[in-house]
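Hey team,

Filing this mostly as a record. A colleague (T.K.) asked me to run one chain through the structure pipeline before their review meeting, and I want the input and output archived in the tracker in case anyone asks later how it was produced. No errors, nothing strange. Just documentation.

Input sequence:
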Amino acid sequence: MKSLRPVVVFASLGHFYIHLCTAFYFVIVLALEQVWQLPYHELIQLWTIGSLLVGAAAVPAGMLSDRFGATKMMVVFFLGMGACSIAAGLSNSSTTMMLSLAGLGLFAAVYHPVGIPWLLRSVRQDVGKVLGFNGIFGSLGAAGAGLSGGLLIDLIDWRAAFIIPGTICLVTGLALLVFVIKGSVADGVRVFERSGEPSREEMKRGFLILLLTMFLAGMVYQTTQISLPKVFDQRHGGLVGSGVLGVGLLVAGVYTAAGVMQIVGGYLADRFPLKPVYLGAMLVQIPMLFLAASLTGVPLVLIATVMVMANVGALPAENLLLLRYTPQHRHGLVFGLKFALAFGAAPVSVLLVSRVSERTGGSYWAFVILAMFALLAFTAAAMLPGERRDAAVASPTST
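Output structure:
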């Protein structure tokens, strides 16, 4: 138990940093348009390789964690992502920026397949609540990307928006390294005792359906995250001034509210059957995405908030469904696949936003396409097997 508290702290900080450092470029790019005098669609494509690596490297990262240990891989995550963020802030050309962002994406890939199972192995009960608590830090990271990016750009410059968060991430990695060397934090082993075990056929069917819904939900999340700063910049309707900070504050507000919803989602996942919780969160997103395609001003901000809240609120139930429909000895590999799919959607999202922006100058069709993705995800999730409520008991021990 001595390692539980540091694991919760560092897992939560890691979730904050990964979402901050993989989202702040979408605000920083608004300043780069002016400084580098390059079009938005060209600059946003610099994140394509990085976003691809966040997904593509997830499975190898999970496998390395199984071999070398989660705590060591988390040290690599903090140090590598921090260093690459600093390098991005020192970039003077599109090529060096692209390479720095690619490195950032590579190290960012470590967190989800390593950090989430690392946390779960240390949890005794109320798993959904713990996932929701950890999830709120991810949403706050996405919120912080808009806030820190806008604030540092307005107060200093765009370079500081990369360098300062990167330095903080680097220092956190050094702190975790000290804990590891002192033996104050370690991997855990979790033992599940579950009732209502699904049949082999149900596990196969459930897992295949989740592969589809996780990818589609990832498309909705990633495309929304990429688009919102530009959408708010174009359609805030006078809510904020012309500076990047105002846009960043709007984005921060949306993702802060979404973070709170993860706690609610975790509570629901602990107390109700997982399938209806998952379906309900998906159903809410469909009309919200259609409305976000054309609204402006306050209605746009409110609809975007509900839309993102529903998307991230589904995550605790989704993670527990994934645990249910996969063998326990494959959970590390399966979580790697989950986040390979979820973040593998990012480069597709980047290209979608870039092409829609280039051809139409707006984002209407991007949100219409996302609404169709959400509808398809809901339809697929409705075919998940019904379940009797699982009772999962975890017995964490230090290794």
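Quick notes for T.K.: The chain has one domain: 4-183+199-386. The CA atoms of residues 219 and 348 lie 8 Å apart.
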